Structures are given as structure tokens and as C-alpha cells.
Amino acid sequence: xxxxxxxxxxxxxxxxxxxxxxxxxxxxxxxxxxxxxxxxxxxxxxxxxxxxxxxxxxxxxxxxxxxxxxxxxxxxxxxxxxxxxxxxxxxxxxxxxxxxxxxxxxxxxxxxxxxxxxxxxxxxxxxxxxxxxxxxxxxxxxxxxxxxxxxxxxxxxxxxxxxxxxxxxxxxxxxxxxxxxxxxxxxxxxxxxxxxxxxxxxxxxxxxxxxxxxxxxxx
Length: 219
What we know:
Rossmann fold
């Protein structure tokens, strides 16, 4: 996970080192814009407290969007540079944004009615993802929801990032090229996701245009 701050710093500079490190592969965290599926989800959902926690806040675009709708916003990212970018984007709307390892953090129980994670939590091993999902469940208030994206196992064969890769476990691999080189990525099928989110009272899953599962679950 130590590569993330290097990735964000190089991206900020937009210099030759970024081009060399990138090797033509753009990390998903730098995809611009808010997913239309996320906009639709938020517009159709009633939130009790409108309090969101973002795991892997990146450049802060999702938190900024939610803050503009009146949400209280908290979030974490492994990269200190990312945290600074998010705070700058939020400005006076800034909440509790801090640097943290998502697999070794504790969230206050029953605090949030929305927890989001866009193109983030798959960056690790499946046993760690399960622990994180359990932590998310605990942090949600009753009736709270998730909007989490996790790549389908087919993405391992279709994503350019994994044109060259090494398998570490079943549907877990590290890319051998690009800025996310050597960072573990886990991929899931529908049955695995249903098992991972089994604690939740309601589970809805659909795929976006990139082949990622969108997991909308309710505590």
C-alpha cells in the first residue's frame, strides 16, 4: 500500500516521472466525474442524518458532491497527498478527513447512515476485505447504507492494468506494470459478494460500465 502517496504526488506534478511510472495505465482513482449510478442512488434514498464516511476519498470529488447536498462528510485515504487534496476541494465544508490504513482502522459504531468506497477496498487480500466489511457494518446506524464498488473477477482478464500480472490467491493478483504495480487487487463473483455482505439485511448488486460491482447494502 506504500505506493499510493507516490502515485498521488506524481499525478499532481504531471511531470515525466508520472508518464514513466504510469506506463500508459491510468489508475481508476483518477477517473474524473461522479458516477451517474451514484447520483441516482443518492437522489432516490432518504438519509436520516445525511452523514457519510468515504473509504479512499481520493481527490475528494464524491465527498465534495455530497457536501454540496448538505451531507456531513468524513473520510480517510492511505495517501497524505490525497487527504490534502480532499481538504482543499472541500474548503470550509471540510469534515474529519485523515490519513489511515483502511484495513487497520476503527470507525465509531452506529455513526453513519452512508458509507461509500469507490474503486478502493479491493486493494488488498480477501480476508482483510471481509474484516473491513464487518467494520463498515458496525459503523453504520440501523438502516444505514453502503455504496461500494468492487471489480468482478472478469476484470482480471479485461483491465489493461492486468495485462501483465501475478496471481497470489484465487482471484487475487498483483499487476506487474503501471503505477499500481505490486499492489494486491482482489476480484469477486456475485456469490462471493453475497457471502461477504451476509450480515446486512438487504443487498442489491449491479455492474457499472467498467465491469465493477456496485454493492448497495442496508444494515
